Structures are given as C-alpha cells and as structure tokens.
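Recall the central idea of this unit: under ordinary conditions, the amino acid sequence of a chain determines the structure it adopts. In this exercise we apply that idea directly, starting from the sequence alone.
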Amino acid sequence: MTELITLMPLDPALHTDALQAVFAATPGYWRLYKLDAPPTDHAAKEFAAAQETPGRSLLGILRRIDRTNPDAGAELIGVLDFRLHYPQEGAAHIGLLLVAEPLQRQGIGAQAWSLLKPWLAAAAGIRTVHVGVEQFNVAALKFWEAQGFTLTGESDRVRVGEKFVRLLHMTAVLTAE
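Accordingly, the structure predicted from this sequence is:
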C-alpha cells in the first residue's frame, strides 16, 4: 500500500533539524557527489538560500506516524524545493524532490508531485515546470520522465561544491484541471 502523504511549508525555526535528518537519510544522493554525507549545516543553508530567493519554497513531505491514530502526528520524510515564476513568469523550477532512502521507490515522490501539480496550475498560475537533473542521476531522469517531463535538449554545467556537474533540462506543460 502506498503511503499517504501531505505537503507542508517548512519553517526554519521549526524544521531545520528534521530537514537535516532527511538529508542524512539519503546517503545515496550524497554519494552521487562523492560525499559520505550531507554537510552538517546543509538544511540551514538551504533555508537561508530559500529566504533570499524570490518565489522559492521548501515544502516538507510528511506522513502520519500512526495510520490508525490521526492525532499521533506526522514525520518529515522528504522535501520538495521549487521556485515560482522562474525562469520566467508562468513557469516554475523544481530544484529538488528528495525522499528518505528507506521510503524511495514506493510512489511517495510521484504522490508529492501529484499534490503539487494542480496547485501550481490553479493557484499559482504556472503553465510550465522545469527541472534540471544531473546527467549521472539516471533514477531521477527516469522518475521525471514517468511524471510526464521530457528532455529539452538543453544542458548546463553548474558548480556543486568543488566540482562541476552537467544538468540536463526537462520540462512539462501543466493544464488547469
């Protein structure tokens, strides 16, 4: 059975430690960058960057701790980082969709995207969504293709820490539902 999730805006005053724990729960992602683990202050830096970047939001992917008890609370199991009206008006850019490794390949990322997509189209007036995927991240390329994104044929080299990586650009057109 697929986990039931919800999305919630993250607040640096409340969620920095929980977001850092999500980053720590994705060692495979960091190994793609030849790191053993995320930098110890990565969540704090992401919150600071989001606050300084117009239209950028960090949404937490949450699931209930106990499905049988709605009062039991929820736990942060992933993050969706996106920017509205970027790179142009009516477009959005997804910077990261990350789910804790033990919960990957269970439909949670697809479910998170399916929750965000209608809101982007209806409430935020977004018609086109862009994502840049590292060329070596085959799982992410396949994931976004399964969500209806297509490669544009464009790419960029971007600096990540001490290294440069090639980002392949993908896009999807949204329709108001």
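The radius of gyration is 16 Å.
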